[in-house]
Write a structure and sequence with these properties.
By secondary structure, this protein is of the alpha+beta class. Helix content is 46%, strand content 16%. It has 2 domains: 271 residues, no CATH class; 149 residues, no CATH class. It has a 6-stranded antiparallel β-sheet with strand order 10-11-12-13-15-14. The chain has a 3-stranded antiparallel β-sheet with strand order 4-5-7.
């Protein structure tokens, strides 16, 4: 509710007096009950159904539309990565799924949504205090949107990945249901906590180890966490750079990593970095000022992001301590056509704000800027103990345990920005919503397989061109 204003006169001076109206807070019980009543208009069973929109739906057309911001020479790389399996197709088709999810039932309750919530966009990374935590780690598509879209995409990703691992549909559905169960139960716990307690909550490495059901799983988790702790820029930069004429230069590997040969590019980079510096808090600017840019190049990363501008910046301190920053283009969220435009004019600021709102702790170098040609960008460290779980070849039991971690994490991210009690009231204490999403995930996984097959056919017919990388 906005503040009200009235004017008073003191002498000859007119003074505006602002009276802050006290907001109206409903009790947890009232919000739970309100959520429960929503089941009358949007029953859980409705979420189990997937039917393609009646209007003609061409997945290739929708994918081609998402290329409008991409570098044309990297679009074939994107398609090559998507063609590998139905799961890699899912990773690269967030826009297509957003189009589809927008046609499914939702309660109208919004949260800060990830927008590209699949199982590999969760992982380990270091906090500014150098603690290792598990959290969502990709926010290119973040935007306020219905909470259902994130949990549905996440559940679908587990079913598709399980099928890629040749697990049965019964096992795949059970994995998806486990993910939703963890989300539902954790959200109810958060609804009982204070806002501060929710914001302080985090899933750290030791907690993950302690959650292991047996000694074998505990040992495996300890090994993964130990590997993550050495995945820092100090170890990466020697593998992607070399000494050239007394300077450290990133090694060209076109079309995956290459330098920009353009007049005025270096000057534009420094102007862009100066603008980025202003987005940082004062104390972080002091830290950033202790590094100088040595080299910068374009690098094709991930699957969904391939083709958008993404730079790797190699920096050094006065004593040659390395720092790798990723300077990544931020395009409008794929959710925007269905959830509304961002309130931020700079899409990089949209990403940064969404990330800070959803994560339990964020990168100290996280900031945004705008390039000299008008491109919106955000900046973060390229590697800081970052690691995603190895799910390829994972057993059903391993995937269920990972699904639980992702469900718990998404619940906390949504509880920070959304009304945990209202959503929890809608979800209830039974597993009816979990089972509905499990069924939906299986059905939509069939749709994803058909769309992947359509992309394969499009390449064979010459409608699209794809470039496959031997080492990807």
């Amino acid at each position: 509710m906005p503040p009200s204003k009235k004017s008073t006169t003191k002498g000859s001076t007119k003074i505006a007096v602002v009276r802050i109206l006290e907001p109206i807070f409903r009790s947890r019980k009232e919000r739970l009950n309100a959520g429960e009543r929503m089941r009358d208009s949007v029953p859980h069973a409705l979420h189990a159904v997937w039917k393609p929109p009646r209007k003609h739906r061409d997945p290739i057309d929708l994918l081609e539309q998402s290329n409008r911001y991409r570098l044309p020479n990297l679009v074939p790389v994107r398609y090559g990565r998507m063609l590998r399996t139905p799961f890699t197709f899912l990773r690269g088709s967030a826009g297509l799924m957003a189009h589809d999810l927008a046609t499914t039932p939702n309660t109208g309750i919004q949260v800060q949504a990830c927008g590209d919530c699949h199982l590999l966009n969760f992982g380990l990374f270091a906090t500014p205090e150098r603690n290792l935590i598990f959290d969502i780690n990709d926010f290119d598509e973040t935007l306020p949107a219905p909470w259902e879209w994130d949990i549905k995409r996440l559940a679908i990703s587990f079913v598709v990945a399980a099928r890629d691992n040749r697990l049965s549909d019964k096992e795949a559905r059970a994995i998806a249901v486990e993910c939703v169960r963890a989300y539902r139960e954790q959200l109810r716990e958060f609804s009982k906590q204070s806002p501060l307690a929710v914001w302080y909550d985090r899933l750290d490495a030791q907690t993950i180890i302690d959650m292991a059901p047996n000694a074998k799983v505990k040992k495996n988790r300890e090994q993964v966490i130990a590997k993550a702790k050495i995945r820092v820029g100090d170890y990466l930069y020697p593998t992607i750079s070399s000494e050239v004429a007394g300077r450290r230069r990133l090694i060209d590997q076109p079309p995956i990593l290459f330098h920009v040969d353009e007049k005025g590019f270096e000057q534009n980079v420094h102007m862009t970095l100066n603008a980025y510096r202003l987005s940082l808090p004062d104390e972080r600017r002091t830290l950033f000022d202790r590094y100088r840019l040595e080299d910068i190049a374009i690098k094709a990363v991930g699957i969904g992001s391939v083709g958008t501008y993404c730079f790797v910046g190699l920096f050094f301190s006065a004593e040659n301590h390395p720092l790798l920053l990723q300077i990544k283009e931020a395009c409008p969220s794929v959710l925007a056509p269905y959830a509304g435009k961002s309130v931020y004019k700079n899409q990089g600021q949209r990403v940064v704000t969404g990330q800070r709102l959803m994560q339990s702790s964020s990168d100290i170098f996280l900031g945004w800027t705008q390039g000299q040609k008008g491109r919106h960008l955000f900046v973060r460290q390229l590697r800081d103990m970052k690691m995603s779980a190895p799910v390829e070849g994972a057993s059903a039991e391993q995937m269920k345990m990972y699904a639980e971690l992702c469900g718990l994490t998404l619940a906390r991210a949504h509880a920070k920005s959304g009304d945990a009690a209202l959503i929890s009231g809608y979800l209830g204490k039974s597993d009816s919503f979990d089972q509905a999403i499990g069924k939906f995930a299986l059905t939509y996984a069939d749709q994803n397989a058909k769309d992947h097959a359509a992309l394969v056919a499009a390449e064979k017919s010459g409608r699209i061109k794809a470039l496959r990388e031997d080492d990807y």
